[in-house]
Input
Amino acid sequence: NAGVTQTPKFQVLKTGQSMTLQCAQDMNHNSMYWYRQDPGMGLRLIYYSASEGTTDKGEVPNGYNVSRLNKREFSLRLESAAPSQTSVYFCASSERDPLETQYFGPGTRLLVL
Amino acid sequence: QKEVEQNSGPLSVPEGAIASLNCTYSDRVSQSFFWYRQYSGKSPELIMSIYSNGDKEDGRFTAQLNKASQYVSLLIRDSQPSDSATYLCAVRETGGYNKLIFGAGTRLAVHP
Output
């Protein structure tokens, strides 16, 4: 039981390049989330998926797209990376009940030059 | 814009002391509050949740909630060096489906 896994762990991009961050969970959770964490700013929600087949914007969605591929997988795509997207990205999941805990993956450190 | 405010710290306490971490929030109708711990370079993990006014205790941790004052705190008794981490306060956004608003976190340093 791996919990929430993310790939890659670290990535360097040049401005304008694209990439997809992968996230998978094996806890049979319905809801999944993508956050970014910047120094002094805490975690900010980019997109979330309340259930398979649905996605919604969070606080900072500009420059990102997501795909809920199936119940297990939720990917985050940067179509044209910008230096402002340099951050640590966390994927999380939770059961359907809104009071349930969110479980976080290990994170992806992204550097955009 | 709904906000969650925390003192960034660092809060430095000696081993064995009580560490008190505070959090204020702007959404008056928020009902669910969470404390996550994040070690340096690691992902956040939930340590406490609280939904009702008053205190909730779990081992060395006590969460305190005062909805009238829009204030939630975390007390760590008998602090250990292994408690040194950043503590994130999170508030469930009203009307949002399990959407959490996080504070920037307070860094706690427990010295021997």
Summary: The two ends of chain B are 40 Å apart (CA to CA). Chain B has a mean pLDDT of 91.
